[in-house]
Design goal:
With 459 residues, the protein is α+β, with helices and mostly antiparallel strands. 24% of the residues lie in helices and 22% in strands. The protein is globular and about 85 Å long. Residues 354-438 form the DUF7586 domain.
Length: 459
């Protein structure tokens, strides 16, 4: 996946490069590399460095910190999709005798298990993993729980270490090897590794009050690796962004990825600027909802976001402990690209074929006296919504048994059925016990509770 010089307009490329240059200069980071993905393809990369003429290429590795959690979450969802676990399972069912025995898999994925944010001292990000050789060393048994499970979002790095151990238990081999074989190799991400491989950037701390630097230690965090160990490149993360946007049947279905990016716990802030799904962060930025993740480790920061509505993703990597706000930069690159080159809508095209019986179902239906419209979509799908503003609108997926399953909003997961009369004609639609008829409260309609025999009348 490579970008070409004609993938974006010159004015767009200039605006993106300017934003990266400002971020590197004002953030005082030794180097910074970024990329934009459009419709699954890397269409632009840009970089700046403190060394003239030596900006990093998209193949240079940076540590990506908590972006690692998105990879671990995909491994766990693969186990779920294979039937090896349920998200409602307590961790102890598969990995007993940890300080988080009662936490469910879903709660660990969503950081809602109430676990402590960090391990006991010393700080795990700057110390060798050999200091924490066992799972019991990741949490203090008497102080593992900081909140009641399932009640609120409380970010927990040890929680993801436990998820990595869960993957190891169910697969019977180290989580990094499982990741390489099941995810990285199928996606062509051969530059994403547990430990750095040349060429890679060194990590630095920049003095807050003077333009001087200090090297940060390069650590192998051991059991805490699933929380933030991975190294990757702009080119590999572009592939990861394309996967998060569209899925890949070799790794994880698009429907499961859509499940991962739904908020799993109510956000704390009333204006909903941030939330968390199953391993994916959600962010509101400039009137759009993004999903992805931020990351940091000593010497490095990272950010990757996807905008479904724009068909865009962006990433940014830097090699300074603080200063360059790479998660914000990645969000800004999406906004800049969308502003300069807004997404073109797909051209209207007629359906490739039509089922006459389905076509006859389209048009107005009434829930009581409220008018709704039923539309036919591709693959025998349906859309149902009120004719007035507001109300309950949903899309429905056709099932092999002749029913439809709701995909979103109030009717998500609910079943829509066509009910026939004794003579074979269509009587009504049944949607989770709600009855929709061809006329409002018709005298012969199958309306629950019946219809007043005198029918409609003036006041």
């Amino acid at each position: 996946m490579t970008g070409r010089s004609d993938d974006l307009l010159p004015t767009t490329r200039r605006a993106l490069l300017h934003r990266v240059a400002v971020a590197q200069a004002e953030g005082r980071t030794p180097s910074l590399v970024a990329g934009v993905v459009r419709d699954g393809r890397l269409v632009w990369t840009g970089a700046r460095s403190m060394i003239d003429g030596h900006a990093p290429t998209p193949d240079v590795q940076y540590r990506i910190g908590s972006l690692t959690k998105t990879f671990v979450a995909v491994l766990v969802l693969r186990l779920r999709d294979e039937g090896l676990l349920d998200l409602a399972d307590p961790l102890a069912r598969h990995l007993p005798r940890t300080p988080a025995d009662g936490a469910t898999v879903a709660q660990l994925l969503a950081h809602s298990a109430g676990l402590a944010a960090e391990t006991p001292a010393p700080w795990w990000e700057r110390t060798d993993g050999t200091l924490r050789p066992a799972l019991d060393d990741l949490l203090e048994p008497e102080a593992a729980l900081k909140h009641p499970a399932g009640r609120r979002h409380h970010y927990s790095n040890p929680g993801y270490a436990l998820l990595g151990a869960l993957v190891e238990k169910l697969r019977g081999e180290p989580w990094g090897e499982v990741l390489r074989r099941e995810v990285l190799a199928p996606l062509g991400m051969d530059r994403t590794t547990l430990l750095p491989e040349h060429p890679y950037a060194g990590g630095f701390a920049v003095h807050p009050w003077a333009d001087v630097m200090l090297p940060e230690p390069l650590t192998d965090t051991g059991l805490m690796g699933p929380a933030g160990q991975l190294w990757s490149t702009a080119a590999d993360l572009a592939r990861w962004a394309a996967f998060l946007a569209g899925g890949d049947e070799k790794v994880l279905a698009a429907a499961t990825l859509a499940e991962m990016r739904r908020p799993a716990v109510g956000p704390d802030n009333a204006d909903w600027t941030a939330a968390y799904g199953l391993g994916l962060q959600l962010l509101r930025h400039e009137c759009r909802v993004l999903y992805g993740h931020a990351g940091s480790m000593p010497g490095f920061t990272a950010g990757l976001w996807v905008s479904e509505q724009d068909g865009l993703a962006a990433l940014a990597l830097s090699n300074a402990t603080s200063g360059a706000n790479t998660p914000l930069l990645a969000a800004q690159l999406i906004a800049l690209t969308a502003e300069h080159e807004p997404r073109l809508p797909e051209p209207w095209r007629p359906l490739p074929d039509v089922d006459e019986e389905l076509l006859a179902l389209t048009g107005p239906w009434y829930w009581g006296a409220a008018p709704h419209a039923l539309r036919l979509t591709a693959d025998r799908g349906l859309e149902l919504g009120p004719l007035a503003d507001g109300g309950r609108r949903s899309r429905f997926r056709a099932e092999p048994d002749g029913t439809w399953t709701g995909l979103d909003n109030y009717y998500a997961g609910e079943t829509l059925r066509v009910v026939h009369a004794a003579d074979g004609s269509v009587s009504h639609l049944d949607l989770g016990s709600f009855v929709l008829t061809r006329e409002p409260y018709g005298p012969a309609a199958a309306v629950p509770g019946g219809v007043d025999p005198q029918g409609w009348r003036a006041g």
